[in-house]
Amino acid sequence: MKKVFGLGVFLIASVISGASQTSTTAAAPSTGVMKVGIVGLVHGHVESFLGGGNLNPAGSILKRPDTELVGIVEKDDALFEKYAQKYHLSPSIHFKSIAEMVSHVHPKAVLVFTAPDQHRRIVEESAALGVHVLMEKPLAFTYADALAMQRAAEKGHIHVLVDFETAWYTSNTEAVNLLQKGELGPIVKAVMRDGHEGPTKIHVQPEFLSWLTDPVQDGDGALTDFGCYGPNLMTWMMNGEAPISVTAVTKRLQPELYPKVSDEAEILLNYKHATAIVEGSWNWPFAVKQMDVYGVTGYAKTIDSDRLDVRKKGEKEAESIKGTALVAPYDDPLHYMEAVISGQIEEKADLSSLKNNVIVAEILDAARRSATSGKTIMLPLAK
């Protein structure tokens, strides 16, 4: 039987540059309200930002005191009207372009809820206007697009950040803290499992399903949708180090539902001193987001968003612990974005950072090439 106990009240400070995004003390809070706009309503995760949910731990942007929604860019009038009725949004905040929205209501940042193939255009337009960007994962499924966004961000002096639900899991943070404290020994292997029963079976919104299953807009189904979580976490644990090579296998286990894209992806990341196995799938029996981290002297296995099992060499059984609540601004995507924009913290190789996510895009690009060719792809890819 596993031992169960409450974890002591501690979070190690971010003493490893780019490794841990937790802190024992919160950054000084901002005294102002951040004006934000939304670009696109076709990504189902926008529901969590408007209505509140696990993707946005600090609550709905319509109710929180630190954020003001000043505009929404959406070309589909019917789609805007659907959300306007549900969340009582004024027609006055509806715009047809980023430039129009910025000229009228002046948001400091935009939150992007489009298909990934639109990210580059949106970042380039926003950078030219000096507006920061926070988008839903992944940054891109091609390395070329990721590099173009990096160049645009540098030229426009803006921050481009990427939101992952798993960035706000206390279990993931605790596992990495244990690793960085040396309690598991140097990392040897990590296994990440992410996904759910598939977008059709969980009944995502029709506008969401349309691009999730389109290889032009989203790359390759489950490979892009859930193959990005593991590389994001592994890049964080490896302090921004990219793998040496990427090998991937994809399958269509439900071709009747997903005839154009893969619903199963296995990705092997080969590092100089470690290995990562990424399992992204639309075929799990239920929603799964788990990470196993193996060091030389122990392991940490996350069970869900706040629980993990830890076992060290010489111990006969694992201990089940709960991660301590994260400290602002590392507890919520909008808290994090505001702190980065205001200069309270540096991105380093944090889970939402551009540096981390350019590497994730490179891995996704290499994985697609590997799955198509049946060959291992060496990194770095040509720029």
From TrEMBL:
Keyword annotations: Oxidoreductase, Signal
Domain Gfo/Idh/MocA-like oxidoreductase N-terminal: 60-163
Pfam families: GFO_IDH_MocA, GFO_IDH_MocA_C3
Signal peptide: 1-19
Superkingdom: Bacteria
GO MF term list: nucleotide binding; oxidoreductase activity
Keyword Cytoplasm attributed: no
Domain GFO/IDH/MocA-like oxidoreductase per the UniProt entry, residue ranges: 175-299
UniProt name for this protein: Putative dehydrogenase
Organism name: Granulicella aggregans
